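User: Quick sanity check before I run a bigger batch. Here is a single chain. Can you write out its predicted 3D structure?
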Amino acid sequence: ADTVKAKAGEAAADAKKKAQAAGETVKDKAQQARAAAEDAAAGAKAKAGEAAETVKEKAGEAKEAVKEGAEKARKVAGEAAADAKVKAGQAAETVKEKAGEAKEAVKEGAEKARKVAGEAAADAKVKAGQAAETVKEKAGEAKEAVKEGAEKARKVAGEAAADAK
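Assistant: Done. Predicted structure follows.
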């Protein structure tokens, strides 16, 4: 029984260790995902800043052009708007990509955790099965020993009875 207890205890400790490792993996993946999302946000800010700068520059050019002619001013303003749109679109794309990557990383982490936990459970089952086998064997041996003891006792009792006669 002590052997069974020990083996079951080992299996439980092992499963616990594997589950903790799985938890760590998920934590790591979540941190990576968070970092990726922060990078994406920083990138988007930078691109939005660049877009604003471009608009400012083009606005300066437009001001210059007003002196030269309203026609040129309209053209430059149109380019600035188009440019700003493109840059804002790129920033949005980058954010989307990074968010997608972050989501993937979290998903992978969760899957890995499930796999490790499953393996730990399977391992615990195997160890418990081995423990049960050991119990069966020991029980068999005990039964044998009791049988042998009973036979010996009968034999001795028989001899004692013969002696008494």
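The chain has a mean pLDDT of 83.

User: Great, the batch can go ahead then.
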